Automatic annotation (TrEMBL):
It is found in: Membrane. PANTHER family: 1,2-PHENYLACETYL-COA EPOXIDASE, SUBUNIT E, NADH OXIDOREDUCTASE HCR. Its main location: membrane. This is Oxidoreductase. Residues 223-323 form the FAD-binding FR-type domain. Keywords: 2Fe-2S, FAD, Flavoprotein, Iron, Iron-sulfur, Membrane, Metal-binding, Oxidoreductase, Transmembrane, Transmembrane helix. One of its GO terms (molecular function) is 2 iron, 2 sulfur cluster binding. The chain crosses the membrane at residues 25-45, 51-72, 93-114, 134-156, 168-186, 198-218. Pfam families: FAD_binding_8 (PF08022), Ferric_reduct (PF01794), NAD_binding_1 (PF00175). PROSITE patterns: FAD_FR. InterPro entries: FAD-bd_8 (IPR013112), FAD-bd_FR_type (IPR017927), Fe3_Rdtase_TM_dom (IPR013130), FNR_nucleotide-bd (IPR039261), MRET (IPR050415), OxRdtase_FAD/NAD-bd (IPR001433), Riboflavin_synthase-like_b-brl (IPR017938). It comes from Streptomyces phyllanthi. Its cofactor is FAD.
Amino acid sequence: MTTVQSVQPPPTTAIRPRVVARTGLYAVLAANVAVVAFFFVQAGFASNTLIVLGRLTGLYGALLMAFQLLLVARLPWLDRRIGMDRLTSWHRWTGFGILWTLLAHAVFITYGYAESSSLDPVNQLVDLAETVEGVLRAVVALAIIMVVGAVSARYARRRLAYETWHFIHLYTYVAVVLAFTHQVAAGTTFATSSAATAYWYVVWGAALASVFAGRLVLPLWRNWRHQLRVTAVVPESDNVVSVYMSGRDLDRLPARAGQFFLWRFLTRDRWWQANPFSLSAAPDGRTLRLTAKAAGDGSAALRHVKVGTRVFAEGPYGAFTAMHRTRPEALLIAGGVGVTPIRALLEELDGHAVVLYRVAADRDAVLYGELQELAHAKGAELHLLTGPVSPDKLAPGELVRLVPDIADRDVFLCGPPPMMNAVLGSLRELNVPRTQIHFERFSLAG
């Protein structure tokens, strides 16, 4: 698959898609913060300062939970402009914000009511749970969020299998439902006026509808429409394999070079497992291709997938595309099997390109023959950099020697995390503008 496609870069004066999306998200959040403050003031203040602070932190905790749902909804418009890795990072920090905000809500409310009664804080909390509708549900929701927060901390996350962490994380949706019913039952500001009630129903309805649409309806619709099946399984080396798929109306699938899907091959033993793999060829409206290295059970099993196997694909995801180009010329840097989205991008990009492919040895250069054909067809420069990690073949001096005009190019980078971190440091040292550096890490929001 070496067909040559071209996508013109946007004018250098155009507003960047990532800036538009990020500014839009910030504006939506800021507007809702202001609306919540308005309804809070309109409802009046309790005489006890702690209770006032407790109600306010509870409202902002609820707003952050709704915003959190928007971040994990995998909405195409946001994903292709911001990228799932960045949305996942925001999701993580918003999650910790929710945890601390709701903890503050519980502490302020408990101590505030205890100050007005003769009960100690523990007995006051028990009394509230027994006598006020919705409080017990809120306590359960907070406990779930604390557990999820604990297993999401870096120390715990590194020691848990992804499937275990993901299963625990799904209980967050239970916490969301419990928290909302608590807000409906006990939220003073929620019921202060018909406008406030309508506002909260719209906020929660929009957030839940986003998740329902992005995580369920859209994937089901696309897979019903396109009916993907495996058409060929081609070994590229001893531990790398390419899988070709075809289906219906693939010219209407909004996939671009550089993006990835979550692939489920519907075999008896693997239908439940989804793996993220990038497209290794630019979509041509007839076939899709992934190329994967055997790094675990899921990727190793691809070599044994049978032709005709049905495929359930979620996506496309990712902002590692030509949509974010700022300059007419490009530098593409790949490391190891990270060459797959780079190879697809080279097929699509217009303008002069330089490709740097870093591997330990020549035998590790997956798809190198295709890269040579594409580079020849498009007039691109291709450099295969082999050898041990030291000396660094992608150090600042080496990059400038190979690409003297590096600061005037868009740089697309994909490879193992240590290599990517080192190259990003080199690009900073060479004063390549951040807006010209494009990379993405595999991170799944929610």
